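Thread: "does anyone have the structure for this chain?"

Original post by V.I.:
We have the sequence but no experimental structure in hand. Need at least a predicted one for the grant figures.
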Amino acid sequence: MSVHIPSVVIRRKEIVGRKTAYDLMKEGIEELMVCDLDSIIDGKTNFKLYNELAKFFEFTVFNLIYNVGDLVDSLVSGASKVVVSPDLTPERLASFLEISQNIVDPNSSRFGLFQKSGGKYVMVSGRMPYQAFSGIYNIGPAMDGENMINVDNFPLELNHFIT
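Reply from O.Q.:
Generated one for you, C-alpha cells below.
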C-alpha cells in the first residue's frame, strides 16, 4: 500500500507559500516532507523552524546534511527522518547509521551497501529499488507498492539530488 505526503519548502527561514504551521494544520496535514533550501543552498539549517513544525507534524527533512552534528541536531530538533547528502562516502554513511537508522539515502548507486549497513529508507524518482526497504520516498510519478511514500509537489529544482 502506498501513501501520499505533501512537501513544503523552507527558504529564508520561512515556509514558502504558507505563513505558519497552523496554516498547514488547517489543511488537515499530519505528515510532511520538509525541503530546507537554506540548508542545501547556504549551509544554514533551520533547526528552530524544525522545532516548531515538530510540535504539530511528523516530518522527514530533506536538508542533505553532510556532517554528524547536523544529523544529530536535525533529529533532536524534531525530524523523524533525515535525507542525507548523496555525496557521502560509504564510511561516513555507515557512521551516520551507527547514530540513527532514521536516515534516508537519495543515492541509488549505493542502495545495496546502504541496506547492508542497516539503512531502511531510500528516496527514488519514479522507479522501484531492487532491494526491500521499510520506506521508499518517491518524488516521481505516483507509484503503488509496499512501503511506498509518494511525495507530492516535490520541488523540481531538487530532483537532481535524487540519483
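V.I.: this helps a lot. Residues 90-99 form the longest helix (10 residues).
O.Q.: and Helices lie at 21-26, 37-42, 47-54, 68-76, 90-99, 111-116.
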